[in-house]
UniProtKB/TrEMBL annotation, chain A:
Pfam families listed in its UniProt record: RskA_C (PF10099)
Stretches assigned to coiled coil: none
Lineage, top ranks: Bacteria, Pseudomonadati, Bacteroidota, Sphingobacteriia, Sphingobacteriales
Gene Ontology biological-process entries: regulation of translation
Anti-sigma K factor RskA C-terminal domain sequence ranges: 105-265
Domain of life: Bacteria
Keywords for the protein's UniProt record, in alphabetical order: Membrane, Transmembrane, Transmembrane helix
GO molecular function: sigma factor antagonist activity
Listed transmembrane segments: 99-119
UniProt KW Secreted keyword: no
Name under which the protein is recorded: Anti-sigma K factor RskA C-terminal domain-containing protein
InterPro entries: Anti-sigma-K/W_factor (IPR051474), RskA_C (IPR018764)
TrEMBL record, chain B:
Keyword Metal-binding: no
Matches recorded under PANTHER family: RNA POLYMERASE ECF-TYPE SIGMA FACTO, RNA POLYMERASE SIGMA FACTOR SIGZ
All residue ranges annotated as the RNA polymerase sigma factor 70 region 4 type domain in the record: 127-173
Keywords of the record: DNA-binding, Sigma factor, Transcription, Transcription regulation
NCBIfam families given in the database record: sigma70-ECF
Alphabetical GO biological process terms: DNA-templated transcription initiation
Recorded family membership: Belongs to the sigma-70 factor family. ECF subfamily.
Residue ranges of domain RNA polymerase sigma-70 region in the record: 28-95
Keyword Zinc: no
Protein known as: RNA polymerase sigma factor
Superkingdom of source: Bacteria
């Protein structure tokens, strides 16, 4: 034990801890430690003392050094979950590409169909518009025809009214004078309504020239009264209403200059008849 | 500036480093970086160089942890020796060292503390108190070896002291520390 104490007192253990020994000396110390466990205890105390001394004289390095140290190390990394994720991802990406291909093709097809339909519809729309125009014009034609027929019906009704009611309408036949022996016409006269109507279809008069018109007169108590002028063409028909009068002895027609005269030109008397 | 340092028991730390556990790397750095940096910067007397050497030391310790034998010493002892040896290698490679003037050496030992590095890392125990307990003749030898990387033979040469005296004074210094810390 005295030897061990001397060994410790020599200071070799301090040099051992401070790394100040040659390899041979160091191995000697380690061999001694195996034989004498108290040497290990002594060494441990020296180490502790130097650690404390270092801590007292310790200097904090910059914080960047810590990060630099930690980032320069390789820690255990588990890579397997990443690989698995890759395997799952690939088919789905392919699937989505295929989906977009089909979607694109479908879109193009739909576009073509839509264009074709639009062109067709446009054509049909134009045709329909033309049909509508044609229908509208024929409709107008019908309307005017109906209007015309209505008017004719009105005229015919009047005819019937005139010819079927002899007590209401007195039918006066005017016969030709020596100037125009073939001429004749009929006038309907309603005394109560003071109505005078010429039956155009019954007119049988010489055609007047462009500057003259026939004028109807009423003879009342030997005096001629103007009942108005009327045009005459063979194509015309119906009843022409003349000026009103309540009392008539006879009717006469003279050929006068266009627009009529105030007094009848007796030399141009064409037809005449007593009422 | 001081972070909440991670501190775990030494055997847990050793197991963690063997597993290459990130927590262990943080604990290793947090527990020893200040003490190791204090050693390195006193040897090289250069902040930038000291930071590089600190990196080298810890990365080397981490990567070659297989060569650490827990039965032959504490983890800190192992790392501090790596640090001191790397620092001395660096100085010698750059021919920083000058053995010619003993006064200069003694001044250099404490230069770093007289400059900007006055921060003291202790559990309520000041450096001055410790310095007062250590005999100056013992302390200079401890510091030349511990903080300047001298061998006891080099100290003997420089201080013109017998080798035995150097060893005795070194032991005396460490004994003072022992009684101080225990």
């Amino acid at each position: 034990m005295e030897d061990i104490k001397a060994y410790i007192e020599s200071g070799i253990l301090e040099l051992y801890v401070l790394g100040n020994l040659t390899d041979a000396e160091r191995h000697d110390v380690e061999d001694m430690c195996l034989k004498f466990p108290e040497l290990s205890t002594e060494i441990s105390q020296i180490e502790n003392s130097l650690l404390q001394y270092s801590n007292v004289y310790g200097i904090e390095p910059p914080t960047s050094s810590r990060d630099k140290f930690l980032s320069s190390l390789n820690f255990e990394i588990q890579a397997e979950p990443l690989l698995e994720a890759e395997v799952i991802n690939l088919p789905s990406r392919e699937k989505s590409i295929r989906f977009y291909k089909y979607a694109f093709a479908a879109s193009v097809a739909l576009l073509l169909v839509s264009l074709f339909t639009i062109i067709n519809l446009n054509k049909e729309l134009k045709e329909s518009k033309n049909e509508i125009i044609a229908l509208q014009s024929s409709n107008q034609k019908f309307a005017s025809q109906v209007n015309y027929i209505g008017k004719e019906l009105q005229v015919n009704k009047k005819f019937l009214q005139v010819y079927q009611n002899p007590e209401e309408y007195k039918l006066v036949t005017l016969n030709g004078t020596p100037k125009a022996p073939e001429a004749s016409m009929k006038v309907a006269f309603n005394k109560d309504k003071q109505e005078v109507l010429i039956d155009i279809s019954s007119l049988n008069l010489p055609a007047p020239d462009a500057n003259h018109q026939y004028q109807l007169w009423a003879l009342v108590d030997g005096k001629p009264i103007d009942l108005g002028v009327f045009d005459y063409t063979s194509a015309q028909s119906g009843l022409t209403q003349m000026k009103s009068i309540g009392k008539v002895d006879a009717f006469a027609v003279t050929l006068e200059k266009k627009g009529g005269s105030k007094t009848p030109t007796l030399t141009e008397l064409v037809v005449m008849g007593g009422a | 500036m001081r972070r909440d340092h991670i501190k775990i028991a030494e055997h847990e730390l050793i197991e963690g480093i063997r597993r290459k556990d990130r927590m262990a790397a943080e604990a290793l750095y947090d527990m020893y970086s200040a003490a190791i940096f204090g050693v390195i910067i006193r040897v090289v007397q250069n902040q930038e160089l000291a930071e590089d050497l600190l990196q080298d030391t810890f990365v080397k310790a981490w990567n070659s942890f297989n060569s650490y034998d827990a039965s032959k010493g504490k983890l800190f002892t192992w790392i501090s020796n790596i640090a001191r040896n790397s620092a001395i290698d660096k100085l010698r490679s750059k021919d920083f060292r000058n053995h010619s003037n003993i006064d200069k050496i003694e001044n250099n030992v404490y230069a770093i503390d007289e400059q900007q590095y006055v921060e003291i890392n202790s559990d309520g125990m000041g450096v001055r108190e410790l310095v007062e307990k250590l005999k100056p003749q013992d302390k200079v030898i401890l510091d030349l070896i511990y903080f300047k990387g001298y061998t006891h033979v080099e100290v003997s040469d420089e201080l013109h002291l017998p080798l035995g005296t150097v060893k005795t004074r070194l032991r005396s210094a460490i004994n003072t520390l022992k009684s101080f810390f225990n």
